[in-house]
């Protein structure tokens, strides 16, 4: 138990550092892609998920893993994921993004965490009814990871999926570049001068100067460590930490441990959390309301984000603007409730779930991304979105 708590602290702090330094948030990954065609964080998410899938498949094949998280599949993932996607976009941060920004000093996201707790409580109170009117009719099959039923070795399957992702991504990017070149040609034929070549040349010169400057400062690791990191760099670090957690404890999750924290804290103030089916039998598995290693891990994420932000000079207590409070409260509540209705959040389903090739998580990911898409278009309804 002591060794697992130590691993939880190391993993949580490491995740907090990489999330904060890479500004690694799934809302940014999808909202920025839909609104502005900005794919920087999206590429980081793809890299982290596919790399984790590859390493997890090897660990599974060799027997060095602590089990998969595979809820039953059906429309619960689609509905709950959609609610969660709406909520995280409205709140302005996903489950992991909320944690690292809380560690960075944003009171907005502490309020979001509190509202998520309310969502967990409401779900728990309604759980007996939801079992019969929601989960049972909308769950169609047993939870399964494709790694466990594949006729080919898990690493081979993971490699095939990775190649497919790369081909699809390259095809999409190639078409966008062709369209951009065609638009420039049309502008040139119309007698209109375009600044794209000049801008491209200036970007090249500017990039070269940055490279030379970076090369000269390669030994100044302190200065480099205080600058924001490329999301791909953060993805590599997150992958390494996720492999450690997968081989020693479980897959990476956020909202499940948060829901346990909610029941645990209520138990400490005299509320009999363990008497409720969802906390007592489902989340704590009938072993009593207690502190678990994954609860320690997500707490350490906040600590790691604080350390990274403080070191970089990014930490400060930021009071939310009054007009943003409904976003924190409403979005947080939908995130808490939606993550239980799915079940699972962006980390449990998009990152970990896809990395373990969970059938449930494929469906939930569609719901989450659809929720982000709809809410992004509503938020930017006055100016429109790029996608």
Automatic annotation (TrEMBL):
List the Pfam families hit by this protein, alphabetically.
Sulf_transp (PF04143)
Top-level taxon = Archaea
Family matches, as InterPro entries? Sulf_transp_TsuA/YedE (IPR007272)
Q: What is its main location?
A: membrane
Q: Which GO terms describe its cellular component?
A: plasma membrane
**Keyword GTP-binding listed:** no
Compartments, record wording: Cell inner membrane
Specify the protein's topology with respect to the membrane: Multi-pass membrane protein
The membrane-spanning stretches of this chain are 6-29, 41-60, 72-93, 105-127, 147-170, 234-256, 295-313, 362-380
Q: Keyword set for this entry? A: Cell inner membrane, Cell membrane, Membrane, Transmembrane, Transmembrane helix, Transport
Checking PANTHER family in the record gives: INNER MEMBRANE PROTEIN YEDE, SULPHUR TRANSPORT DOMAIN-CONTAINING PROTEIN
Q: What is this protein called?
A: YeeE/YedE family protein
Q: What is the lineage of its organism?
A: Archaea, Methanobacteriati, Methanobacteriota, Stenosarchaea group, Halobacteria
């Amino acid at each position: 138990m002591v060794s697992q708590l130590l691993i939880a602290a190391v993993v949580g702090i490491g995740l907090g550092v990489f999330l904060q330094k890479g500004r690694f948030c799934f809302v940014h990954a999808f909202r920025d892609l839909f609104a502005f065609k900005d794919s920087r964080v999206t590429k980081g998410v793809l890299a982290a998920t596919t790399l984790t899938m590859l390493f997890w498949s090897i660990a599974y094949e060799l027997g060095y893993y602590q089990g998969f998280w595979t809820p039953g599949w059906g429309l619960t993932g689609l509905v709950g994921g959609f609610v969660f996607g709406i909520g995280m976009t409205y709140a302005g941060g996903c489950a992991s993004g909320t944690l690292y920004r809380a560690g960075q000093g944003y009171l907005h996201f502490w309020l979001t965490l509190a509202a998520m707790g309310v969502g967990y409580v409401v779900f728990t109170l309604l759980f007996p009814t939801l079992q019969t009117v929601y989960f049972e009719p909308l769950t169609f099959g047993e939870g399964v990871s494709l790694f466990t039923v594949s006729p080919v070795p898990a690493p081979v399957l993971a490699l095939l999926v990775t190649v497919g992702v790369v081909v699809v991504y390259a095809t999409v990017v190639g078409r966008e570049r062709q369209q951009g070149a065609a638009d420039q040609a049309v502008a040139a034929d119309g007698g209109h001068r375009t600044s794209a070549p000049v801008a491209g040349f200036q970007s090249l010169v500017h990039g070269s100067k940055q490279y030379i400057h970076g090369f000269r400062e390669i030994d100044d690791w302190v200065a480099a460590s205080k600058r924001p990191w490329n999301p791909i760099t953060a993805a590599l670090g997150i992958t390494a930490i996720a492999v450690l957690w997968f081989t020693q404890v479980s897959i990476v999750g956020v909202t499940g441990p948060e829901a346990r924290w909610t029941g645990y804290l209520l138990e400490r103030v005299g509320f009999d959390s363990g008497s409720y089916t969802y906390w007592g039998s489902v989340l704590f598995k009938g072993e009593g309301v207690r502190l678990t290693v994954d609860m320690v891990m997500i707490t350490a994420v906040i600590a790691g984000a604080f350390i990274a932000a403080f070191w970089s000079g990014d930490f400060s207590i930021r009071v939310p603007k009054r007009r943003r409070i409904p976003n924190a409260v409403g979005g947080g509540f939908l995130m808490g409730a939606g993550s239980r209705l799915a079940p699972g959040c962006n980390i449990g389903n998009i990152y970990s779930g896809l990395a373990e090739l969970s059938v449930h998580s494929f469906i939930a990911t569609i719901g989450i991304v659809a929720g982000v898409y709809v809410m992004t278009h509503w938020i930017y309804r006055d100016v429109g979105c790029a996608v």
